[in-house]
Design goal:
Layout lengths: L48 E4 L7 E2 L9 E3 L2 E2 L23 H5 E4 L3 H9 L9 E3 L10 H4 L1 H12 L3 E5 L8 H9 L3 E6 L5 H7 L6 H13 L4 E8 L8 H11 L3 E6 L6 H12 L4 H11 L18 H16 L28
Parallel strand pairs: 1-5, 3-6, 6-7, 7-8, 8-9, 9-10
Antiparallel strand pairs: 2-3, 4-5
Helix pairs in contact: 2-4, 8-11
Length: 360
Amino acid sequence: MRNLPVQPLHRTPGRAAGSNPDVRFDRLHAETVDDGWARDDELPVLRTQVSDELARKVISRNTSPDLSFDRSINPYRGCEHGCIYCFARPSHAFLGLSPGLDFETKLIARPNAAAQLRKELSHPKYEPRILAIGTNTDPYQPIEKARGIMRDVVQVLAEFRHPLGIVTKGTLIERDIDILAPMARDGLLRVGISITTLDPKVSRVMEPRVPSPKARLRTIRALTEAGIPVRVMVSPVVPALTDHELEAILQAAADAGAVAASSIVLRLPLEVAPLFEEWVKTHFPDRAKRIMRRVRELHGGKTYDPDFGKRMVGQGPWAQMMQQRFKLAAARLALDRSLPALRSDLFERPAQSGDQLSLF
């Protein structure tokens, strides 16, 4: 039987993924093919769909030696920013959804996240440590403007005086400066802003619904002027595509007021590897082979090496050269500093209705 061409079901403007790979946990697989019947009608545009999930628990724990935190919150599952390189894409498979276009268009909001967080922080055995938000999907992605779940979560953390680390590409974080600035003043907050490239054309196809690089630089300026310490995150560094911009990104961020910097090389776990390779062949066919060859050099001959200590920095001569370039540039720009540890000693549980009040 001859192989029939795949028939697209939608037009996908503003999306990075070019396909919807099967969910790896499914036993059955389906493929849409062209049956030969002519189509006179225009394909519909693939729109974003948002479903609600009532979370029974919102604080997730990890024991990874590669991470500086042991707990995090995700107000949303899936991310409309649609970054093709996003390492969180495979997590959508646990919902029975594809890490491809589904990850960008079938989003899950957790409207009770703030209420559930308040409950978990109020537990008498809870001990505060820095809580990270934005480490999986972006809390300031476009739907946050209408839903406001992240703002509610931040408000709860401010009330409890809980240390918080935020990672985002979203300029919507500026909306919450009224809450975030007092937290920063008390040593309870730091923010990481991710900038992958300064080239708006590359950014638009690689991270299609993320604010422009210039807009993110303006956000760094707005946050730092409000007294919020910002780390610029040159992540991920894409070999043979964005690696030449490392020093320029650090310089631009320093000029905008960033006080520290970090960098992570491209990593392509599970379904992300074929999605990325499909994307790079589509948008950068002239250098696709070079990019993928360099990716494999970074990860011991594979598209990804999940070993702790290797997955974020890579291995081999190119990885070592990038580390050296980053260290030199960061030191020259005074971005190589270690930020002070966030305070946990200010944590307090606000009085709730019905609580026994102190006599003193």
